């Protein structure tokens, strides 16, 4: 079982990003904490992989409403997202990681973040560069879903709330938004990564060409 | 880019070995390398080159035998496999080398340990690598009972974290069968036997934990079929000699039906996994009931509390109702 990334974000209150009428960049979620494990990618692809993860995390988090849980199938990952009162956690897991266990873990991350940083995130206006060691430890510790299952305190909550499933990332976007235009506008993706993204779409290659 | 690295390493390696092995295989390669670089070393070419190299080396080594050369061969194979983990000729070359080494080495267990570890690394990098796992299964006859038990313990965690990879469960099945073989044929057969029963029971318990945790995983249910089949036969044969009124086979089958009804009762989920789980569970019960007339009767008796198999299958997968009708009438 693999957890590739755990990202904590603050979605912008202004609503989902998209082209505003003045043509400027729509608001996107801010990254508060980030832990990724891209060791299974080829050496030269790791930088691009990290950029994509941040981009996808921002896009999905911004489009997860408070109180909502959703899962998106994106290439060989399932991207799980949970927004609790404006604080959002996004996890990138492989296809076999049980969904319930994933959301148990997301809950735990949210609890721990509030314990560690309180409400300081509410005032954030830019990406945070603060290190949070717990996140990287969680990435390793919860590779085994059995560990996540032990966090059963919130099992009751999970059974009551529905999890929205999207088959592709395009389904998460608002009406009228297109992934290509978001990629272009994103400051997360270097020119090289944007080029790769276009190429991928054109040739339907998978990201790891080993 | 990867292929170019590979060729560079090869050239260097063969340059070094030229002194030991003899010139002609190197000359063959010296002709091949420029040709393949003309074609820009596609994946197909890499495979072709590797196959030829391996054949050459085999020919040369059979005439020019040396223990340290054999160990070099293992290193070369590991190098090739790191680029091309499913290359069959490399795996088979590795087996040829080990067979030769086995005649001369005292410390086979250590060699086997290293091989197992290599396969595990390969399997981590390239999932569902049937050839790598088959290589690991090939090592089993060289293992003594203690190593078989060790391997079962060591490979357990990996299998647990890669439940979609059927190859690792197939390896476990081969290990368990080796334990049974040992129980039949060896001087310490009584110890072997009791170990086998303990491992089997533990494997069944562990498999059930995984089935409950990972919904709808076919490889887990397949593994359970294998385990149940032997276990039920074993329990039935025990009953013939035992004096107690309790039928262990009945008890076991009741537990299996209980597993089925748990699967049936699970709440539906958005990803459709519960539904697949129900289908797999029902097919599993159908399968074990078909193994033996005695078992069939016992299963049908116990199914009454759940509903007939036909109903269960129809509920789980209504679009295959014609298939179920056909299967259940045979």
In short:
Chain A has 210 residues and is of the alpha+beta class.
Task: From the structure above, extract its key features.
heterodimer; A: 210 residues; alpha+beta; Beta-Lactamase; six-stranded mixed β-sheet; B: 330 residues; prenylation (chain A); Longin-like_dom_sf (chain A)
Give an overview of the whole structure.
The complex is a heterodimer of chains A (210) and B (330). Chain A is of the alpha+beta class. Chain A has one domain (3-13, 26-206): Longin domain (Beta-Lactamase, 2-Layer Sandwich), CATH 3.30.450. Chain A is 36% helix and 19% strand. In chain A, strands 2-1-5-4-3-6 form a six-stranded mixed β-sheet, sandwiched between helices. Chain B is an all-alpha fold. Chain A binds chain B through residues 1, 40, 71, 95-96, 98-99, 143-146, 149, 159, 162-165, 210, and chain B through 2, 125, 160-164, 213-215, 217, 267, 269-271. Chain A: It is found in: Endomembrane system. Chain A: Keywords: Coiled coil, Lipoprotein, Membrane, Methylation, Palmitate, Prenylation. Chain A: Its main location: membrane.
Determine the oligomeric state from the structure: heterodimer
**What is the assigned CATH homologous superfamily of chain A?**
Longin domain
Decide which structural class fits the backbone of chain A: alpha+beta
How do the SSEs of chain A run, as a string of H and E? EEHEEEHHHHEHH
Computed Rg of chain A: 16 Å
Number of strands of chain A: 6
Spans of chain B of at least 5 consecutive residues whose pLDDT stays below 50 are: 18-26, 36-41
Q: What level of helicity do the residues of chain A show?
A: 25-40%
Strand content of chain B: under 5%
Shape of chain A: globular
Supply the CATH architecture of chain A.
2-Layer Sandwich
Give, in order, the helices and strands of chain B: HHHHHHHHHHHHHHHH
Total beta strand runs of chain B: 0
Give the spatial strand order of the biggest sheet of chain A.
Answer: 2-1-5-4-3-6
């Amino acid at each position: 079982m693999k957890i590739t990334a755990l990202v904590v974000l603050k979605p912008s209150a202004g609503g989902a990003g998209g082209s505003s009428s003045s043509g400027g960049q729509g608001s996107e979620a801010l990254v508060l904490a980030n832990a990724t494990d891209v060791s299974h990618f080829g050496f030269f692809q790791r930088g691009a992989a990290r950029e994509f993860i941040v981009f996808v995390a921002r896009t999905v988090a911004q489009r997860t409403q408070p109180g909502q849980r959703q899962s998106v199938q994106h290439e060989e990952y399932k991207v799980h997202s949970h927004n609790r009162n404006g604080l959002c956690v996004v996890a990138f897991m492989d296809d076999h990681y049980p969904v319930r266990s994933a959301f148990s873990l997301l809950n735990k991350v949210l609890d721990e973040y509030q314990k560690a940083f309180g409400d300081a995130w509410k005032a954030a206006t830019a990406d945070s560069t603060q290190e949070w060691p717990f996140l990287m430890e969680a990435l390793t510790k919860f590779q085994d879903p059995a560990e996540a299952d032990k966090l059963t305190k919130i099992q009751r909550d999970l059974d009551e709330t529905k999890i929205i499933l999207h088959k592709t990332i395009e389904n998460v976007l608002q009406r009228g938004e297109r992934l290509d235009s978001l990629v272009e506008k994103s400051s997360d993706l270097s020119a090289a990564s944007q080029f790769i993204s276009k190429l991928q779409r054109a040739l339907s290659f998978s990201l790891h060409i080993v | 880019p990867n292929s170019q690295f590979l060729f560079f390493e090869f050239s260097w390696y063969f340059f070094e070995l030229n002194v030991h092995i003899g010139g002609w295989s190197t000359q063959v390669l010296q002709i091949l390398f420029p040709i393949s670089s003309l074609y820009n070393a596609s994946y197909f070419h890499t495979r072709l080159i590797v196959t030829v190299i391996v054949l050459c080396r085999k020919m040369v080594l059979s005439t020019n035998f040396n223990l340290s050369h054999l160990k070099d061969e293992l290193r070369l194979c590991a190098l090739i496999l790191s680029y091309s983990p499913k290359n069959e000729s490399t795996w088979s070359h590795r087996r040829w080398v080990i067979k030769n080494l086995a005649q001369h080495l005292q410390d086979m267990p250590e060699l086997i340990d290293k091989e197992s570890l290599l396969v595990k690394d390969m399997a981590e990098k390239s999932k569902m690598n049937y050839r790598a796992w088959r290589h690991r299964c090939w090592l089993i006859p060289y293992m003594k009972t203690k190593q078989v038990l060790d391997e079962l313990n060591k490979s357990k965690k990996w299998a647990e974290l890669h439940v979609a990879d059927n190859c690792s469960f197939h390896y476990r099945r081969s290990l368990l069968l080796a334990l049974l073989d040992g129980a039949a044929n060896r001087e310490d057969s009584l110890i072997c036997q009791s170990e086998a029963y303990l491992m089997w029971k533990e494997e069944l318990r562990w498999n059930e934990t995984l089935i409950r945790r990972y919904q709808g995983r076919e490889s887990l249910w397949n593994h359970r079929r294998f385990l149940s089949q032997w276990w039920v036969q074993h329990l039935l044969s025990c009953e013939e000699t035992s004096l107690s009124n309790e039928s262990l086979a009945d008890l076991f089958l009741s537990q299996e039906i209980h597993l089925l009804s748990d699967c049936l009762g699970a709440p539906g989920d958005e990803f459709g996994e519960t539904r697949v789980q129900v289908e797999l569970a029902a097919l599993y019960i159908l399968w074990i009931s078909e193994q033996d007339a005695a078992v069939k009767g016992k299963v049908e008796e116990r199914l009454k509390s759940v509903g007939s198999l036909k109903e269960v299958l129809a509920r789980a997968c209504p679009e295959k109702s014609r298939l179920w009708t056909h299967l259940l009438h045979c």
